[in-house]
Each structure stands twice: as C-alpha cells, then as structure tokens.
C-alpha cells in the first residue's frame, strides 16, 4: 500500500474547531496532527494510505496541499491545545535545584534539574526523575519546617508533542512538549539516558536530559535562571525568602 504524507492549510467546512478533523483522521486510520491558527484557519499534517489522505483533505474547503516527508507519527493528535499545567519550582534543599513538573493524567510528573532549565538549544541539562506530586503543590511557595524553601519560578500550560502519544512517550523515555510559561516558551525535549542505582526508599532514579528545541523561542547563549530569578507568583527570590 502506498503511504503518503501531506501538509495542508485551509479552512474547515462548517465547524472551525480541530476536533472534527481529528475524529475524521482517526476514523480514516491516518496519523499526524492538526492545529488551529490564530486567524481561524487550520494547518494539518496527515500521513497514511493515499486514498485516506485524499479523503481527509477533501473535508477542508480552499485547502492548499503540498507533499511532506513521512515523519513516522504513531497517532493523530490536536496540536496547539493545552494538555495541562506545568510548573518549575526553585527549591533550596540539601542541593539547590529546580523541579520541573508536567501534568499528566491528574498528577504532576516531576524531574529535579540541578542547574535549571535553559533556553539555549546547545545546553543539555540533567533532569533526575522524582516522585509525582499533586496538582495542589503547584502553587506552593514558602519555607519548609525542615529548613528548605521553594518559589514558583515559572508556570503555565503545555502542549504534548512528538510522534508517540502520551503518557506512552514518557514510558518509552522520549517526550517532546511545548511550554507556555512566563519565562519558558517553545519546544523542549526530555530524553531518558539511564536508570540510576535502585534506592530502598525512592525506587530507581531515572536520569533524563532536558533540552530546548530549536525554534523561535530559543535563546542561544542565554542563562534564563540567572537572568530571571524572581517568583512569578510573588516577585520574591529564593535567597530573599531564606534571608
Ligand atoms: Mn525538589
């Protein structure tokens, strides 16, 4: 069977929302994505058997279609839609670090990033997977009785991306996502590198790398954690909170 990939921009007939396009693509057994643009038009990438691709394109009016490379998607998904909350909490503990948390299926999947996130695509930051947190913890800022302290360094919504549906992408160890924060914006990737030694208390600590993807939001050479140290909730710094 001949597989084909197209990139299409155009107007949806009737309902402009991407959901009907996504449903139709899934019915047709196609893979790829659809995104609503700010002007109300749709952009979509569809790959699969030629006849089904043609059938999906025909659901759009005034569509401009061009051949695209087959990217190997394993799903058809809506892009540009927020999948949940993200937060980065700067945490003074035994070792100072930043906790990146992404909302997945009702919990905040969490990684401790010793040096914090970067907007420089040339920088790979170690991210150690830690236990899930509750959504209620996202707004927590203050001192712990144990002596540590936390500020909400950044927060917002995020989109799930990549070729593999979530949360399977996380289980497989490669997850692509787009952050819509006040400081962190654009595409990022988390790549699992290895599991550390098992610990009786916390289980195995999987190690990942957090990398900014190359896009319009990338800032080569920048150091966002040094340039923007203040809490997005209160304007306080961690040092100020501890003083
Ligand atoms: Mn922490």
Task: Classify the secondary structure makeup into a structural class.
Answer: mainly beta
Number of helices: 5
Identify the overall geometry.
Answer: elongated
Order of helices and strands: EHEEHEEEEEEEEHEEEHH
Strand order of the largest sheet: 6-7-8-9-14-13-12-11
Main sheet record = 8 strands, antiparallel, barrel
What's the total number of strands? 14
The overall pLDDT, averaged over residues, is: 92
Taking all Cα atoms into account, the compactness measure Rg is 20 Å
Helix content: 10-25%
Low-confidence stretches: none
Layout: helices, strands, pairs:
Layout: E1 3-12, H1 18-27, E2 31-36, E3 42-49, H2 50-57, E4 60-67, E5 76-79, E6 84-92, E7 97-104, E8 107-113, E9 124-133, E10 142-143, E11 149-160, H3 168-172, E12 174-181, E13 185-195, E14 206-212, H4 224-227, H5 238-242
Parallel strand pairs: 2-5
Antiparallel strand pairs: 1-3, 1-4, 2-3, 6-7, 6-11, 7-8, 8-9, 9-14, 10-11, 11-12, 12-13, 13-14
Q: What does this protein structure show overall?
A:
With 243 residues, the protein is mainly beta. Helix content is 13%, strand content 45%. The strands form 2 sheets. It has an 8-stranded antiparallel β-barrel with strand order 6-7-8-9-14-13-12-11. It has a 5-stranded mixed β-sheet with strand order 4-1-3-2-5. The structure holds manganese (II) ion (MN). Residues 91, 93, 97, 99, 112 line the site of manganese (II) ion (MN).
